[in-house]
């Protein structure tokens, strides 16, 4: 392996190297890397194996721990950033990621009244996907958008999420602020925070699939979820389909995988994932939370698997794995009783909503097979806001003058 020229804004920390490993025909034909940005929701800094759970298990085998083998594999096969930071809450993190502005400049600096999404994006707020579109990227967003709401009636005195979730006629009220407006070609998930508090839902939002002029801002409602469906799985499946659909093309793709896991409601399916923790002697509360993170970890593994074998036929000749940068992080620190159940803070002070490190420090892995040297670490400070400029430079897009992203 020989040193390469610096790649993207990671140059100040990563020391990337080029590799002579075999790359598939698709990867060789496509000079710009695909980008997967996987963002967990309310995942505490110490809740992955490599950031604390493996050490916790080694210190006392009787302690309940969370297993994240797929995230840990990304960490061991890429670069771990020991000092990566988001913002204290969901909305402000998503606003900064999308626009490249820090919270002092971003129009979306809160979750808004009753978590309704806060302020909407402005027309002048160029989105990351819009920037990548100018250089040929196809982009899909899956999960929580959290920046611009749909039209449920929100009462300032409401105390019960369920009173705000179900209604017959959802509509986009923050026109100009949807994922499609901000450059994504596909979307599937939640527009606002309150809706995203529930995993068993009547509907999810998606991009316009039928060409109906009645669909506001190229968005429509998918009424197909059943009471037995777990929304995080439905959303993950859509992201995998996007990878399968776009991996064989000549154009690069960008995936924002904004899962709602492990944000509450802490009521996952009582399936084999959950049952394994119950069988290990965990309390119901422990099993519920651990199973949600295990599910998140499985979704990460599924993405890697689809990059290696996009059409899932067992033949990896169509792999785009070697030409895909994968970033994993959380939107803010953990919250609730699980912070103590699994030592989610990893010794840090504070949790979600705090500007102490427990509220803003995030696990952060950069993985690019054959390009980022495996088993490397960096103590440089990484800010979520820097992703905009980093991804734009990797794709060869111009970065708007005045962004805080660097």
Name a few traits of the molecule:
13 strands; single chain; 12 helices; globular; 11-stranded mixed beta sheet; disordered N terminus; 406 residues
What topology emerges from the helices and strands here?
Blueprint lengths: L1 E2 L13 E2 L6 H5 L4 E7 L8 H11 L9 H8 L2 E7 L4 H10 L28 H6 L4 E7 L17 H4 L20 E5 L13 E4 L11 E4 L8 H16 L6 E6 L13 H8 L4 H25 L15 E7 L7 H4 L15 H4 E2 L1 E4 L8 E8 L3 H9 L11
Parallel strand pairs: 3-9, 3-10, 4-13, 5-6, 5-9
Antiparallel strand pairs: 1-2, 4-11, 4-12, 6-7, 7-8, 10-12
Helix pairs in contact: 7-9, 8-9
Walk me through the structure.
With 406 residues, the chain is of the alpha/beta class. The chain is 27% helix and 16% strand. The protein has 12 helices and 13 strands. It has helices at 25-29, 49-59, 69-76, 90-99, 128-133, 162-165, 231-246, 272-279, 284-308, 338-341, 357-360, 387-395; strands at 2-3, 17-18, 34-40, 79-85, 138-144, 186-190, 204-207, 219-222, 253-258, 324-330, 361-362, 364-367, 376-383. Strands 3, 4, 5, 6, 7, 8, 9, 10, 11, 12 and 13 form an 11-stranded mixed sheet that branches. Strands 1-2 form a two-stranded antiparallel ribbon. Helix 7 (231-246) packs parallel to helix 9 and helix 8 crosses helix 9. The radius of gyration is 20 Å and the shape is globular. The two termini are 28 Å apart. Residues 1-9, 11-29 and 153-166 have low confidence and may be disordered.
């Amino acid at each position: 392996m020989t040193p390469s020229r610096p790649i993207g804004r990671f140059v100040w920390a990563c020391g990337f190297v080029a590799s002579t490993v075999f790359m598939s025909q698709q990867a060789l034909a496509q000079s710009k890397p695909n980008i997967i940005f996987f963002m967990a929701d309310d995942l505490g800094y110490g809740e992955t194996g490599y950031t604390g759970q493996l050490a916790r298990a080694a210190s006392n085998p009787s302690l309940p721990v969370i297993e994240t083998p797929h995230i840990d594999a990304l960490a061991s096969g890429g670069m771990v950033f020991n000092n990566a930071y988001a913002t204290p809450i969901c909305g402000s993190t998503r606003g900064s990621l999308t626009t490249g502005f820090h919270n002092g400049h971003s129009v979306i600096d809160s979750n808004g009244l009753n978590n309704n999404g806060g302020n909407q994006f402005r027309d002048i707020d160029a989105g990351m996907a819009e920037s990548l579109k100018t250089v040929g990227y196809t982009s899909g967003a899956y999960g929580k958008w959290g920046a611009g709401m749909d039209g449920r009636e929100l009462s300032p005195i409401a105390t019960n999420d369920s009173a705000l979730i179900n209604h017959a006629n959802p509509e986009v009220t923050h026109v100009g602020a949807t994922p499609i407006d901000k450059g994504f070609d596909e979307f599937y998930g939640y527009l606002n925070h309150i809706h995203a508090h529930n995993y068993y839902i009547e509907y999810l939002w998606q991009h316009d699939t039928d060409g109906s002029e009645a669909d506001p801002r190229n968005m429509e409602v998918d009424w197909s979820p059943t009471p037995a469906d777990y929304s995080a799985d439905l959303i993950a499946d859509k992201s995998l389909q996007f990878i399968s659909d776009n991996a064989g093309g000549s154009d690069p793709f960008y995936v924002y995988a904004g899962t709602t896991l492990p944000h509450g409601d802490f009521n996952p399916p009582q399936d084999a994932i959950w049952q394994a923790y119950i069988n290990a002697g965990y309390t119901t509360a422990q099993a519920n939370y651990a199973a949600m993170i295990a599910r998140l970890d499985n979704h990460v593994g599924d993405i890697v698997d689809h990059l290696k074998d996009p059409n899932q036929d067992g033949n990896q000749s169509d792999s785009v794995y070697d030409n895909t940068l994968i970033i994993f992080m959380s939107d803010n620190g953990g919250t609730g009783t699980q912070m103590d159940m699994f030592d989610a803070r990893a010794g840090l002070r504070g949790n979600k909503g705090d500007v102490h490190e427990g509220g803003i420090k995030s696990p952060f892995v950069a993985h690019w097979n054959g390009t980022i040297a495996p088993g490397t670490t960096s103590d440089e400070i990484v800010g979520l806001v820097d992703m905009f400029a980093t991804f734009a430079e990797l794709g060869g897009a111009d970065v708007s003058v005045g962004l805080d992203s660097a």
